[in-house]
Amino acid sequence: MADEAAIFVAIALGLLFFVIPLYLLTFRKKEEDEPQAEVKKEEVKKTEPNTSNSQKKLRNPVSKKKVQQNLNDNGINHPYLISSLKGHTGPITSLDFSDNGKLLASSSEDRTVRLWNVKDFREKDHKYGRGNVEFDLASDVAFSPDSRAFVASLANEQKIRVFKIHKEKKETGSTTMSISPEFDFDKIHKSAIISVGISSTGKYIMTADKGTQIIIWSIKGEVYDKIDTLLMYNTFASISPCGNLVAACGFTSEVKLWHMQFSKSGDFQQTLKAFEIKGHRAGVLSFSFTNDSKRFATASKDGTWKVWDINVNYLKSQEAYLLSTGNFTGYEEGLNVNIALTHDYFTVALSVGSHLKYYDSKSGEMDEDILHAHPGSICALRWYTDSKILVSSGGTDRMLRVWENIHGAKANLADLKEKLKRTTSASIKERIEQQIEDYTKFLKKFNKV
């Protein structure tokens, strides 16, 4: 028994002096190895962006600088994207270009209206003037003809506020802009105002609400007339660029247009029904005029868009006639759909939810489909007066995006080549050849020639 006890004590001492130190040594070594493993993971992460960038460069025909610029815009990577205008802190509700082509106004649920310089669109920095909408927010904005003021519809109070634009030159030569409220119109609308506009003649202001009412105002806020659209409800309304027509669409499948009649001395006389645009099989969601008020584009719940010639003598009962049509997919009830026809007639831009599509306005064929042009639904589209750039506004991303019109450039190039064949004048021929060279050089950047 004594021998067995001695053996047991020897084993216990062996465990104490050999096994336990071995365990502590192993545990210490593991602790020392763990930081090295973390460093290796960090080194792997550092190498990942280089691999990704090289792959994107191979897939994208534009320059590395352009790719990097687009990737910085919340991950949007499309060669048509020129820039993103950032500044709003809430969803954007509307936008409008000034008649002089120098400014873009945008309104937002952040209770501000911002004025952007068009000349900065292709620059890295985008300066803006800011004006607060006290105790409310602007649901829509429209510039005055002289571009020195604008009107905004107030979402909560359901009335109109006039703002004045102030410009001040600094010693450095730069110009700053500020905005101040001037006065409010009386509250007459009983439901939310969805559209506001000022005629190019400066003779009247139009407002339309979610019901069926359109009100025609004087510049000072006096009511000229009230129109019942009889559309069940309105979805959009606008004044033609010439200032003679007011148009509205809604639940029904037609667009209604009214003629604003003034005397030679400028006094309002009456509102006359001009004509209706018929051809869709379901409610019209959006429409747009060209700058010369001769063409008109519509988009409907039936999944079609159409381009119309409205250069008719409607006072003698002449009707608009259809020029072309196209189809689009992806519409669901309640989804935002916007349409904009270029002022040169070549391109139809259409947004369905967050997707932006370019169509040939004559053939109806889709030329480009930009998926998720904004993270959320697009709320407005506007072409600049030269038809070369398009501005879209998003809701959830709180920014405006500026896009190239590649299809328009291709269409203009083809049109110029046809004109060159028919030209006999040396001076005109030289001018056309220069334009062809410019468009060709531009399209080569996008591998489109």
Automatic annotation (TrEMBL):
Each WD repeat, start to end: 85-119, 277-311, 371-404
Gene3D superfamilies for the chain: YVTN repeat-like/Quinoprotein amine dehydrogenase
Ranges annotated as biased composition (Basic and acidic residues): 35-48
GO BP field: endoplasmic reticulum unfolded protein response
GO cellular component: endoplasmic reticulum
Keyword Cell inner membrane set for record: no
The keyword Membrane is annotated on this UniProt entry: yes
SUPFAM superfamilies for this protein: WD40 repeat-like
Domain of life: Eukaryota
Chain segments annotated as transmembrane: 6-25
Keyword terms: Membrane, Repeat, Transmembrane, Transmembrane helix, WD repeat
Ranges for region Disordered: 35-66
Alphabetized Pfam families for the sequence: WD40
Biased composition (Basic residues): 56-66
Domain Death span(s) in chain numbering: 399-436
InterPro entries, per database record: Death_dom, WBSCR13, WD40/YVTN_repeat-like_dom_sf, WD40_PAC1, WD40_repeat_CS, WD40_repeat_dom_sf, WD40_rpt
Protein's name in the database: Death domain-containing protein
Lineage, uppermost ranks: Eukaryota, Metazoa, Cnidaria, Hydrozoa, Hydroidolina
